[in-house]
């Protein structure tokens, strides 16, 4: 339970930071220094959540839960990036980072699947 609580708190803080950082409706206009601080904290939290924080799976059921969560996260990310690509394509202003992220997600999934089928 403690591990889940840590993950939930980390996700909430990360979402708040990303909302503050995006400022989509120009609700607040922080000075440059404040934006840089928010950006640095958000980047550190993203790196921590994505690469450093360990999730230990004990038995097969927990491993299946982790795999299902990863699958849902991949599909959600792909869906959001595809919708963003369509919306930006209609506006004729496609951000190259969206296409890069979507391409990396698809290619890395394919490479990982081929690797695991061959070596596991």
Oligomeric assembly: single chain
Low-confidence runs of at least 5 consecutive residues: none
Order of helix and strand elements from N to C terminus: HHHH
Strand fraction equals under 5%
Structure report:
It is a single chain. The protein is an all-alpha fold and 120 residues long. 82% of the residues lie in helices and 0% in strands. It has two domains: 1-54; 58-120. Helix 1 (2-22) runs antiparallel to helix 2 (32-52) and helix 3 (60-91) packs antiparallel against helix 4. It is globular. The protein starts with a helix and ends with a helix.
Task: Write the SSE topology.
Blueprint: H1 2-22, H2 32-52, H3 60-91, H4 96-119
Helix pairs in contact: 1-2, 3-4
Keywords:
4 helices; globular; mainly alpha; 82% helix; 2 domains; 120 residues; 0% strand
What's this model, at a glance?
With 120 residues, the protein is mostly helical. The chain has helices spanning 2-22, 32-52, 60-91, 96-119.
